[in-house]
Amino acid sequence: MAAWYRACVSDLFFWDFGFRASDFVLRISDFFFGISTKGLLVVEESSRQPAPEDPRVRLAGERTLLAWVRTGLAMMGFGFVVARFGLFLQEIAAAGQKPVPPSTGLSLWIGTALVLLGVTVNGLAAAEHVRFLRRLDRGEAYHAPRWSLGVIVAVVLAALGVGMTVYLLLLAG
What we know:
Helices cover 71% and strands 0% of the residues. With 173 residues, it is mainly alpha-helical. The radius of gyration is 31 Å and the shape is elongated.
């Protein structure tokens, strides 16, 4: 029984998990089973090999970067459509033999803001990805950034959405 327990403790704490058994575990085994710690293999900290890097971490970072790039591209495309929305309304009015409504140029400004926001999102996503890779290369633990790119984009898009709603209501009325 004692030899089997010694082998299990040795396997469990030293080879499977790669850390040293605490004095508490050794004292408990000595107390309950009368096992001496002399037969246990002790692995020194300096002789352990560092764990290989999990490639899924880098791949997750790549997926996150690509998701932000898609978001930025979508914003740029939508901005282009919004910028040309005023021209579209003028063409519809001209085709229907109706008087052309006066253009305020607001759709051009909102569309341009969306295109610039898309460019900014792509730039910030690239910068955040580079910072992530540097922290990963240095072996640092993950720390949440001070600001969230997702929250910033959501707030700016909500403000632009409110602006476009007001513009459309003023245009219709």
